[in-house]
Amino acid sequence: MDSLPLGEEVIQKACSIAMEAHNYPEAPCRVENSPSSSDVFFTFPGSWSVADWFTRLPFGETKVDPSKLLSPKGKDKVATSLRSIGRDELATVNEGFWKRLEMILANPSLQSEVEKAIADKKQIVFTGHSSAGAVAILATVWFLENYIKPEITRMSPLCVTFGSPLVADFIFNHALRRENWSHCFIHFVMRYDIVPRILLAPLSSMERELEQILYLLNPKPLFPSQGSTRVASQFYQTVMRNASALTSHAACQLMGNANPILETVASFIELSPYRPCGTFVFCTGNGKLVVVRNADAVLQLLFYSTQLCSENELEEVAERSLNSHFDYQSELRERLKMQNVVHLDHLDGLPLSSNGAAAENIATSMALNELGLSTRARLCLRAAGEQEKQKLSNQQRMDRKKADIEAGLAMLEDYKSKCAVCQVGYYDAFRSSKDEDDFKANVKRLELTGIWDEIVEMLNRYELPEGFESRKEWVELSTRYRRIVEPLDVANYYRHAKNEDTGPYMDKGRPRRYKYTQRWREHALRMPVGSSAESSFWAEVEELQLHRRTRPGAFEEIRETILNLERKLKEWIDGEHISRDVFLEGSSFTKLWKSLPQQHKSVSCLQGQINS
């Protein structure tokens, strides 16, 4: 029998205090810290105002501000986790929920309670029901950004939500999986609960109904609502219609539909940016708990598990979509004892019907039936599984190319050593390209370019597992590649005078493979953006040489640039990020430096290096 990702006692406790928090709307954050317990629970009250869900049209979304995730003690750093490395794009989050977290963090009490729990070596659990679940998700990310460090704690927090709306986009989920944080998030969703689906629809399509629906969902309404069944039916249909458009579009992408009409149609329809993250546990209502980790599959389930069998069911299902939002405590109390849990891990092999299920898939088939999944829904889940499988296959194919990359780099490093023996750096030797060894180096450069362009393009299209970007061996290999090969690309660029037509290498000519691999290293080592630019050193030298040739008497125009380059070069040399062949007598840099005014050279931090 499969089991849940965390213990029954923690789930029950989290659900209980998450529901109880609604009784204290004046308390932005409540802490449950019993001396006899090894767990500390942080929970938040829900919000039932439209303005707290949608701050703007169409979906109330905003780009995340990484600096707002930092605690006061970490303001000198930049939080960079919630972004795409390849596209250098920040994640999108719901602005209303994000502002609620900002308001909570403005009071130092949360931080002090968290640090007390860390000092006591207790398991930290962020939890919330309804919109409070969204705040709990963001609070957990705040904790992960600030406290999961060797010098503070290695104990990952838990985030347990019940009926939470979606809170962020695809990049957010991608970042959590890349950082290996996704396992911290567990979300319970009742089959018919409408709240986890609300943000799949734009505000413009449901503004009137949403205000009434949130009033109905408020555990403490002041007056009974009239006509709730009609409002619930209209609201349910609106949300499901928008969810249908989104999941259909997502399914077409999963199945590799490259028809340009698809994107044309999508440009006319407002599709929600929000996507699931973490592990979802669907409560079927008939005794089973279905665990799903694939975010693409979760998105499809959020739509297909709430489908009507006939139009006659509309009012009944619409009412259930509201009532079930407050059934988590009673539902889980019964289901957790039964531990009837099914994990949908091998999506690519899901049975398309209950009749054709193999013996080992009977439990899975029954769970799919209890979620009311049609053959089309199962095909969508299969497509999500196939994509996941393809990503792993792509990773294995790239891993097999490591040997070719390492052999190519070894050949170029040998070429570099030979050039140094001749008292000319390999950059200048390659720039002049007079010998056969230079030609061979160029062939190898082009071979490696093909491999790395393929890798970077796959990462840019998210065709590799998210964890690929966090693999230390690939970060190190990409850095080694960038440091040895980019100088050759710079030399080739200026040898063919491409700067005259295109502009400076750094502005117009630098390939994406180097921009990406630089950001990759900076992210892995939590370095400031742009601080690992050692491989593009020669591009700066070329532009400074050009300035000296065209404006020899205008040193003051480039004085600060020269000082900055000298300082960085000294750091790179000391850190062995750039080799000392830049100081050889025939080096372009040495010639540039010697052309500088004597007054500058006499106080330069490189004076001793070059003279020796």
TrEMBL record:
Claim: Membrane is one of the keywords in the record: no
Coiled coil feature spans: none
Pfam families: EDS1_EP (PF18117), Lipase_3 (PF01764)
Gene Ontology annotations of biological process type: lipid metabolic process; systemic acquired resistance, salicylic acid mediated signaling pathway
Residue ranges of domain Fungal lipase-type in the record: 42-199
Gene Ontology terms: cellular component: cytoplasm; nucleus
GO MF entries: hydrolase activity
Keyword set, alphabetical order: Cytoplasm, Hydrolase, Nucleus, Plant defense
Subcellular compartments: Cytoplasm; Nucleus
Keyword Hydrolase set for record: yes
Ranges for domain EDS1 EP: 411-606
Name the record gives this protein: Disease resistance protein, putative
